[in-house]
Each structure stands twice: as C-alpha cells, then as structure tokens.
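Re: beginner question about structure tokens

> Can someone show what the tokenized structure looks like for a real chain? I only ever see the sequence side.

Sure, here's an example I had lying around. Input first:
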Amino acid sequence: MSLFTSIFLALLALSLTVEWWLALRHIGFVARHAGQVPPRFEGAISLAEHTKAARYTGVNTRMSMWEVGIGALIVLGWTLGGGLNSLDQLWRTFALGPVVTGTGVLMSLALIGTVLEIPMTWWKTFKVESRFGFNRTTPALFWSDTLKNAVVMLAVTLPLAWVALLLMSAAGPLWWLWLWGVWMGFIVLMIWIYPTFIAPWFNTFNPLEDGELKRRIEALLARSGFTSQGIFVMDGSRRSSHGNAYFTGFGKSKRIVFYDTLIERLSPDEIEAVLAHELGHFKLHHIRRRLVLTGLTSLAALGILGWLAAEPWFYASLGVATPSPHGAIALFLLAMPVFSFFLDPLMALYSRQHEFEADRYAGQQTDRHDLVTALVKLYADNAATLTPDPLYSAFHDSHPPAPIRVARLEGE
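And the corresponding structure tokens:
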C-alpha cells in the first residue's frame, strides 16, 4: 500500500468518524432540549412545534449519517474498489479516441452517481417529508424532476468535460490555467442563464400582482439601488410547504423570487424585511466576494490537479491502472472532498458572518422586529430546530442558530 493510499484511507476514516460523532452529538443535544421552548421563543412557537422540529431534526440527521456512510463506500468502490478503472477500460474497448472516451467516462460517472442518489432522495421526499407534513410532490412530478435534472446535468457538464479534456491534451503544461478561465466563464454563464432558461423548466414564475406589497417592495428596491428584471412568485407549493425567498442572476437577468408559500404565511411588513435581508447580500457585495472566493479556491484546486495529473503514483494509489486526463479529473473529484473536509467549518463561518451582516442591513432598511417575527414563523413552518448542538452547528450550518441570530437583531 502506497503512502498516498494510506493517507487517503486515514482521512476518509477520520472524516467519517467526525461526521458521525458530530451527528450523534447533535441528535442527543436536540433531544435533551426538546421538552422546553427557549425563553425568547415562548409564546411565538408552541411546545408542539418545538418537539416536532426536534423529531424532524433527529430523523434528518440520522439520514445524513446514512448518506455519509454510503457516500464513503461509493468513493471506495470507485477508487480502490476498481469501479472507475473498470469503467475506463470498458470505454477504451470502443476505440473512440481519447477525448470522446474521456467524455464518455466522465458522463457515465455522473449519470451513475445520479442514479445512486435516487433511492435516498425518494425516501426523504415520500417518507421523511411526508411524515412531517411537508411533501406535496407526486410520484409523477418526482420522476419528471429526476429526468429533467439528468438532462440539465448532461447538457451542462458534457461540453464542459469536452473542453477540459481538449485543453488537457493540447494546451501544454499550463492547461489548468486555461481551464480555470473556462470554468469561471462557465460559472458566470450559469448565473446568467439559470433564472431565464433553466428554473422556468421546473417551476412557474408569475409576476407579483400589483398592490401594497409590490409598491413597498419597489420602494425598498429604489432605496437599496437594486434594479431587476422583475419580482416573481414561484409555485414552490407544488413540491413542498417550505417557504423561501431569493434573488438570482446578474445584470439585466437579475430577478427577485418569492415562494408562494412564503407569500401566504408572512405579512407585507415581514416579507419586506426578508427581502431586505436578501438585498443586503447584494448591497454588501457578498455575491461578488463569494465569486472571488470561488475563483481563488478553484484556481488552487486546478493547480493541484495540474500537478497530480502528471504523477503516475496518483492513479496507481487510487486504483486506476492507466493514467489519463479523464482519470485525473474523476479521481480528483472523488478524492477532493476527503482532503478538504476540515475546511468546511471555515466556509460555514464565512457564510454565517455574511448572514449577520445581511440581517444588520435589513434592520437598517426596515423594522428589525419584522425580520425577527418573520424568522420565527419560518423556523416554525420549516421545523428548524431552535437548539442545535453548538459544535455541529459551527461545523455545518451556513446560517447562525436561531437564538443567536434573533438575539443579535434584538440587540442592535
């Protein structure tokens, strides 16, 4: 066994152990606090809602333990188990040339991964979400979404894989730098085309009707200096009772989207406060900063890939007999989460800081108490736990825990 194989296995086992340990901590912590609503939320969230959130959190966290364990087995199966090597050898028998063969291997890997995810997604949708009263997806809609997602995945990743393999074959030692430029262009393109061409394939987006709410939102947009393609209401209730709001796109393609479930649940004051939070991300340049961070991290990752792709030991250590550009990409994508696992808390911390800043901005543009009441309603409606384990939350949560977030808003 090579040194790299030993390191890979050790980190995979360590990350799996840490994930399960954190999950068990979280389950136990939430269960111990299920019998008492936190003082700040008494009167706003009932004990029945609080205990429902505890049960929902426990079930989802146990599901995540299964997902992590199965995911580790799948990674081992593709790498040291010889799955990727067998897939590679199968495509080579067709003698289609290196770029076509490599694209076939990468697309097959992606499609098989999509198929392997279906049972867990089905269970979550029709067992967990249905059990807690959230699911509104029909089996027909589930399979339609699955097929559409597969089509979109192929349409998006196939040309990207093709270009990547062409560059690796023809662009010289600095191919990874050229590929980084293509990757960043691809991200910007996806941000632009998603709201206009992809999202409408899955959901219906209707312009927000004229009235008090629209006038208030337009006044808020004017104060924030935000121009968009429009304000839309999405039929999120087709699939779930969960509520949300977001803005997407950039330039002339920017649009603001409210789930219809959120419109039904919140008052105009609260909707305005929620939107002000989302606009805070725009006004404080969080989207731009995250794009820059994505650019820097992807540049570093591609630089490492550029080094590993030229090293025969990289392939041999992870179960692939014949070095190739597509083998390097596949192995890197499979192994990278194992090596980057302990960076997750830093990314979560960075995201939570942005949430605090967006909350502060919303409190300056609207009445912060409206944002508090909106958040409390959303926590109750989405069965989000008010008492997460602090260590689990620090490692995983992109949003601050409810008590901390509300306390900050009320203290400002």
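Each token stands for a local structural state, so reading them left to right follows the chain. The chain is about 75% helix and 5% strand.
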